[in-house]
Automatic annotation (TrEMBL):
<keyword id="KW-0472">Membrane</keyword>
<feature type="transmembrane region" description="Helical">
    <location>
        <begin position="233"/>
        <end position="260"/>
    </location>
</feature>
<dbReference type="InterPro" id="IPR002549">
    <property type="entry name" value="AI-2E-like"/>
</dbReference>
<feature type="transmembrane region" description="Helical">
    <location>
        <begin position="139"/>
        <end position="162"/>
    </location>
</feature>
<dbReference type="Pfam" id="PF01594">
    <property type="entry name" value="AI-2E_transport"/>
</dbReference>
<keyword id="KW-1133">Transmembrane helix</keyword>
<feature type="transmembrane region" description="Helical">
    <location>
        <begin position="299"/>
        <end position="317"/>
    </location>
</feature>
<protein>
    <submittedName>
        <fullName>Predicted PurR-regulated permease PerM</fullName>
    </submittedName>
</protein>
<keyword id="KW-0812">Transmembrane</keyword>
<feature type="transmembrane region" description="Helical">
    <location>
        <begin position="203"/>
        <end position="221"/>
    </location>
</feature>
<feature type="transmembrane region" description="Helical">
    <location>
        <begin position="266"/>
        <end position="287"/>
    </location>
</feature>
<feature type="transmembrane region" description="Helical">
    <location>
        <begin position="323"/>
        <end position="346"/>
    </location>
</feature>
<comment type="similarity">
    <text>Belongs to the autoinducer-2 exporter (AI-2E) (TC 2.A.86) family.</text>
</comment>
<dbReference type="GO" id="GO:0055085">
    <property type="term" value="P:transmembrane transport"/>
</dbReference>
<feature type="transmembrane region" description="Helical">
    <location>
        <begin position="20"/>
        <end position="50"/>
    </location>
</feature>
<feature type="transmembrane region" description="Helical">
    <location>
        <begin position="70"/>
        <end position="91"/>
    </location>
</feature>
<dbReference type="GO" id="GO:0016020">
    <property type="term" value="C:membrane"/>
</dbReference>
Amino acid sequence: MEEAGLRQRVMMLEFWRDLLLVLTLAVTGLVYGSGFLVPLTFAALVVVLLNAVADRVSAIPLAGQFVPLWLANVIGILLVLFGFAVIALILSSQADGVAETIPRYAERLEAILASLVSLVGEENALEVRQVLQEMDMSGWALGALGSAGGFLSGFLLVMLYIPFMMVETGPMGRKLRIAAPNRRAAAEISKITRSISRGLQRYIGVKTFVSLLTGLFSYAVMKPMGLDFAETWAVLAFALNFIPSIGSVLGVVLPAVVALVQFDTVTPFLVIVLGCGTVQFSIGNILEPAIFGRSLNLSPFLVILALTFWTAVWGVAGALLSVPIMVGFLIVFAHIPCTQWLAILMSGDGDLSGIREMDGQEGAERA
C-alpha cells in the first residue's frame, strides 16, 4: 500500500516536472521564434479574414445568381490588400513626421504637467520635473514608433505566407478526412473543422468591421479639428480596438494628448475626448454586441492575463494578437469534445452558448 502511494506521488512529481519543462520550452520558443511566428500568426488571421469576406461576397445575388466562389475570393483578396495598402501608405508617409514631432510634443507635455503640479508647491514641482525627465517620454514614444515600423517591415513576409496558406486550405481538409480512422470519425472531424472555421471567420470579420468603423469615425472627429497626423491616429484607433479595454482607452488618450500639446486652447482636447470617447463607447458597448449577438463570455481575468503574457512575449504585436489568439483557442476547445472543459474554464461563467449561436447565425445566413 505504501509502495503504491509512493509510486503515485513519484508519478505526479514526474508529471509536473514534464509539464513545467514543456511550458518553459514553449515560452522560450515563442520568445526566440517571434520573428517567424508573429508574421505567421498575422498571416493566419488574414487568411481567416479573407475567407470571411469571400463568404460575404459569395452570398450577394448577382443577376439572379450568387457571385461565383472564385470571383468572391478574388474580390475578397483585393479588398483586404487595398486595406493593408492604405494602412501601409499612411504609416510610411507620416512616420518620419511623427518621429520628428514627438520630442517637441514630449517637451511641451512635460512643461504642461510641471506647471499643473507647481500649483501644489515648488518642492513637489521640482520632484515631478525630475521624475518626468527620468521617464523620458519621448524615448518611450519613439520606441513604440520603432515597434510599429518593425511591424510594417514584416508586411511583405505576411503577404508571402498568405497565398500558400490559401492554396493549402482545401487540401488540408481532405487530408484530415483521409487521415481519419473511419468514416464516422472523418465526418466528425469535418463537422468540427467547419464549426471552428465559421466561428473564427465570424469573430475576425466582425471585429475587423467594428474596428474599421472605430477608425473612420474617430478620424471624422479628429480631422475637422486640424489635429496633426489624424490619419495615423485613426489607424492606431483601428489597430488598438483589437486590444481589450486598454486599447479603447489608448485610442482616445493618444490623440487627446496630441491635441493638448498642439493647440493653445483646451477646446480641441475636450472635443476629441468627448467625440472619440463617444465613438469607442457606442461601437464597443452597443454596436459590437448587437452584431455578435450573445457575448463570447470570455473570462475578464484571462483576457488581462493573455494581454500581459503576449505583450511580454511579442511586444506590441502580441498585444494586438492576444485576444484573437485567445478567442481562437476558445472556439477550437469548445468544438472538440475532449477539450470542452478547457473552454468552460476560459469562459466567464461556463456558458458557451455564444459560440453555438455564432455557428447557428452563420449557418442561417448561408442558407
